[in-house]
Design brief:
The structure is a single chain. 12% of the residues lie in helices and 42% in strands. The chain is mainly beta. The strands form six sheets. The chain has a six-stranded antiparallel β-barrel. Strands 15-21-18-17-22-23 form a six-stranded antiparallel barrel. A hairpin with a 3-residue loop joins strand 9 and strand 10. It is globular and about 75 Å long.
Length: 351
């Protein structure tokens, strides 16, 4: 599928997979951002005959921008390049030089022929000089658990559970998905943005109570104190508090037909909190092909830029680099209810 993001599902005895096949054209950058936003691994497909193209660099940059920790450089069509090791190494060296400017933790290159199946599932007899893993073996064994933040405990509240039964009439729990770190009964916690302290009484699941909850588990937390907690609040461990601010600096990829302009107002959805946001300033636009910062007065569809937002309610956030779940948001066109842009938080706006 050339234009849309095509999702394909399959499983092996070791893992389940979802492939988001995204278009490579510049005018579909927003589709690439959509597919990359939830990915653990990016497979950048290279034609061995053509080498590292502008499109390949753009995909790698967006993968880096969206915080994908692992990149697979799949050098395809090696059969049409005569199975030549020199061709493969030249492409790897060229990409490595470009990747030095990216924030990518792990890059592996695999020479392949998708048509003939070489190094896709089984090792190729046509390229005895390659001793690394096949594509499937790598995808089955790459460590994706480390993509979650296991240090800072974060729990955005989705729903307040108050069963209307005589047996549970005193029950009050807070349901949601752990977005970072781990929680245990007895932990000292703080509810943000109010700052009210409490202690974690228990962690409940559909199967019953558990002794710990960690990302990305969906659970219900019960607190020892009857304090005001509602959807959009965040429960964190005491001493591990994120930023709480109404002005944030972020990288935004623009999705909408109508350009983003300074002073424009949009709805903002961040974790489970909804508010309104105004574009206070546009610092620059990023050229996704050259990585240059370009002066701009607006962002057109598929363009990416650095902006400062001011929100009507405090956001509880981390930088996107620290936590993808609490460091991302979407901007909503309130007239159409469509997603106007996707953002990755850098931090609180500087004065």
């Amino acid at each position: 599928i050339t234009i849309d993001v095509a999702y394909r599902y399959f499983a092996t005895p070791r893992r389940k997979f979802i492939i988001a096949d995204t278009p490579g054209h510049l005018q579909y950058t927003r589709n690439m951002v959509t597919g990359a936003s939830t990915a653990d691994v990016a497979v950048v497909l290279i034609d061995a005959r053509r080498g590292v193209l502008e499109q390949s660099r753009r995909h790698a940059f967006i993968a880096s921008l969206l915080g994908i920790p692992h990149i697979v450089l799949a050098v395809n069509k090696m059969d049409l390049a005569g199975w030549d090791e020199v061709v493969f190494k030249g492409i790897v060296d060229e990409f490595a030089a470009f990747a030095e400017g990216l924030d990518v933790k792990d890059v592996i290159a695999i020479p392949m022929s998708a048509l003939l199946g070489d190094n896709v599932v089984d090792h190729s007899g046509n390229m005895p000089w390659y001793e690394g893993p096949t594509l499937l073996h790598h995808l089955e064994h790459v460590d994706v658990a480390s993509s979650h933040n296991h240090t800072d405990s974060r729990f955005p509240v989705q729903y307040v559970v108050r069963p209307q039964t005589e047996e549970h009439h005193d029950y009050r729990g807070y349901a949601g998905q752990v977005a970072g770190g781990a929680f245990h009964p007895g932990d000292d916690v703080v509810v943000l943005p109010s700052g009210l302290p409490s202690k974690l009484l228990s962690i409940d699941t559909y199967e019953g109570p558990v002794t710990q909850a960690f990302a990305p588990m969906s659970v219900t937390l019960r607190l020892a104190d009857d304090i005001d907690v509602s959807r959009g609040d965040m429960i964190v461990k005491a001493g591990e508090q994120p930023f709480v601010d109404q002005e944030v600096e972020a990288i935004v990829c623009w999705f909408a037909d109508r350009p983003m302009a300074v002073g424009a107002k949009y709805g903002i959805k961040h974790t489970t909190r909804s508010a309104r946001a105004m574009i206070r300033s546009l610092e620059h636009r990023l050229d996704v092909n050259t990585l240059d910062e370009v002066a701009a007065s607006e962002l057109a569809m598929n363009e990416i830029g650095r902006v400062v937002l001011k929100t009507t309610a405090p956001l509880v956030f981390d930088s996107y680099r620290r936590n993808r779940a609490t460091g991302s948001f979407i901007l909503i066109d309130e007239a159409t209810n469509g997603t106007a842009g996707a953002g990755m938080i850098i931090g609180p706006a500087s004065a």
